[in-house]
Design brief:
Blueprint lengths: L1 E2 L5 E2 L12 H9 L19 H12 L12 H15 L14 H13 L5 E6 L4 H7 L4 E6 L9 H7 L3
Parallel strand pairs: 3-4
Antiparallel strand pairs: 1-2
Helix pairs in contact: 4-5
């Protein structure tokens, strides 16, 4: 229990007790101590932000383009994504109603899971996978069901579903 000002107290969500620390972060900490290693652990690149990206960010800040974007993303970005999808894979999505930008895949999955999952729902999760995804499933009370795809070339197949839920 946390004590707040004016003798108010706050208790944490009890579901947090089941999450535990990140194993990939612990592994990354150990790997980081090995001299000369090229780490492929947590998605952190071994290079600095390119100069043109830094310059674009600085230009946007100087132009006062540093405020919150619209909830689904900036219209020009959404339109660019729509055009890219059409050009690259031939799908046509409306930039105003069918595309949403999030801060990474984890943010997108969190938004989706919190919106559609209910306590007790079972979600098939092909593994290996980023460990945080299991926590995102557990927070709304759903149950992750691990499907080991490492023995099948990391391919998720109908046979995997048959093993979990036989006819």
């Amino acid at each position: 229990m946390l004590k707040l000002a004016n003798d108010l107290s706050l208790t944490k969500n009890t579901r947090l007790n089941s999450l535990g620390p990140s194993k990939i972060r612990a592994f990354d900490a150990k790997a980081s101590k090995i001299p000369g290693i090229i780490k492929l652990t947590i998605g952190e690149p071994d290079l600095n932000t390119p100069d043109h990206v830094k310059e674009a960010a600085i230009a946007d800040i100087k132009a006062n383009d540093s405020h919150y974007a619209p909830q689904a993303g900036k219209p020009e970005l959404l339109e660019a994504i729509s055009k890219y999808l059409k050009r690259s894979i031939g799908v046509d999505y409306d930039s105003k109603s069918e595309i949403c930008v999030t801060v990474g895949a984890t943010g997108a999955l969190n938004d989706v899971f919190m919106s559609i999952l209910n306590p007790g729902d079972k979600i098939l999760v092909p593994t290996p996978v980023w460990a945080l995804y299991f926590h995102l499933i557990k927070l709304p009370g759903a149950i992750p069901v691990k499907i080991d795809t490492s023995i099948d070339g990391l391919m998720f197949t109908t046979e995997h579903i048959d093993v979990v839920s036989p006819n």
